[in-house]
Amino acid sequence: MAINLIRQAPSGHGNLGDEAIVAATIEYLRLRLPEARFVGITLHPDDTRRRFGIEAFPIAGVSRPGYLVSGDLTAEALRVEAQFARDADRSHPSSPPTARGPSDRALTSVLKRAVKRVVPRDVLWIAVQELRHLRAARRLVQGVDLVVVAGGGQIDDMWGGTWGHPYALFKWASLARQAGRPLVIASVGFGTLRAPLSRWFARHALRVARYRSFRDEGSLRRMQQAGLAHEDPVLPDLAFGLDRRNLIARAQQSRVPGLVCVGPMVFLDPATWPIKDQTGHEAYLDRLASLAVGLVEAGRKVALISSDGPDRRTVAAVYDRISARVSPADLGRVSVPQTDSVDRFLVAVAGADVFVGSRLHGLLLSLLAGTPVLALAYDRKVDALMHAMDLGADCLGIGDFDPADAVARTLRLAADGDGKRAAIAARVREFSGRVQTQFDQLLT
């Protein structure tokens, strides 16, 4: 069985939530289909190949601001398409193409010259790239047996606008329908759909699906408000299906007493964030540095860690602020471990008393590791996760949290570690079981 695995973001640009979702999906489907072959449809095919050992293909033919495709339809991407297309030809033979005569070729040549005269060069380039991508993507879908849209922020036009992911999702759903291949959409989250055309693209894509589920109740209701009149199931994030019990158990055995992990993010950073606010970003960095300094002054060790590639720049900025405010001896209590993979991140947080952070999957992976968390929420989805885990009281707003209050809350979480860890572990087991059941449903 050949499976298209569609994932919007980074599967590509260092986002560990995407890595966790894809890894969980591949691992569980392989348990049920040991001979299955996967091709990832992502923004960064080379990274997807490296991380998961599967074939990969670009999700779009053209990059847009905030929706950057690494590479183009290179020879390697076309090789993947050709491989799966050969499978399609063997499984679904079609009539041979009709040969074109001299008059057809002459007419095509005239049309090409006419188009070049009236269409601006940049628009023509985009159109050609999109047509090339459509043709290769169509052949690719014809060579698979199942198309899976794997969880997370699939319903969103914040990054790249309407012609970013909403259009990409619409395109792949339409190709699956045209090819007669089943499409399943599992545990998706709703971000923003500001434009009417974005909502139209999303509605069409979801209506095509044989199976749909949403990551939280809010995502389902917002999609219904956008025009999808269905009562679909609400099931946990697919990352809860990741099985790293042995890795986590080993890391917990070597826990560092008094360690708190803090996860900065590029909140309001004009270089990266859709909302550009340098003043707000600087204020956030100052508050987070004050939180870390307060923990150090309380005798704790602090590890600054990231769960997304761009956040590493924010980690460095927070470290610089800390170093300007503490003695060299106290600065020795602040570390910056490498957490560029899910497993490295899990090892870091499993060895800590508490994780303080904002990224949805930074928090989720910490909970998967059994570590209490203090969330600094920047989005509805963070609040939804914390309330689903019965941890709503441990959630503050990223834009106005008081560092001294956050330090006090962190110390209380550390003091109540055993009780918190037991409750978290029970909830994670429940969510993991529900995700595993969903994977079975995807194949029926």
Terminal CA distance:
14 Å
Task: Order the strands across the largest sheet as they lie in space.
Answer: 3-2-1-4-5-6
Report the biggest beta sheet as strand number plus sense, adding barrel if it closes.
6 strands, parallel
State the total count of DSSP E strands. 12
Mean pLDDT: 89
**Strand pairing plus helix content: what structural class?**
alpha/beta
How many H/I helices? 17
Judging from the principal axes of the Cα atoms, what is the shape? globular
What sequence of helices (H) and strands (E) makes up the elements? EHEHEHHHEHEHEHHEHEHHEHEHEHEHH
What is the radius of gyration?
24 Å
Question: pLDDT under 50 segments (min length 5)?
Answer: 94-100
Helix percent reads 40-55%
Report the portion of residues in β strands: 5-15%
In short:
This protein is α/β, with parallel strands linked by helices.
How is the topology of this model organized?
Elements: E1 2-6, H1 16-32, E2 37-42, H2 45-52, E3 55-58, H3 75-91, H4 102-118, H5 121-142, E4 146-155, H6 165-179, E5 183-190, H7 196-208, E6 211-214, H8 217-225, H9 245-253, E7 259-263, H10 278-297, E8 301-304, H11 311-323, H12 328-331, E9 334-335, H13 342-350, E10 354-357, H14 360-368, E11 373-377, H15 380-388, E12 395-397, H16 403-415, H17 417-442
Parallel strand pairs: 1-2, 1-4, 2-3, 4-5, 5-6, 7-8, 7-10, 8-9, 10-11, 11-12
Helix pairs in contact: 1-14, 3-5, 5-6, 6-7, 9-13, 10-11, 10-16, 13-14
Summary tags:
444 residues; 6-stranded parallel β-sheet; 12 strands
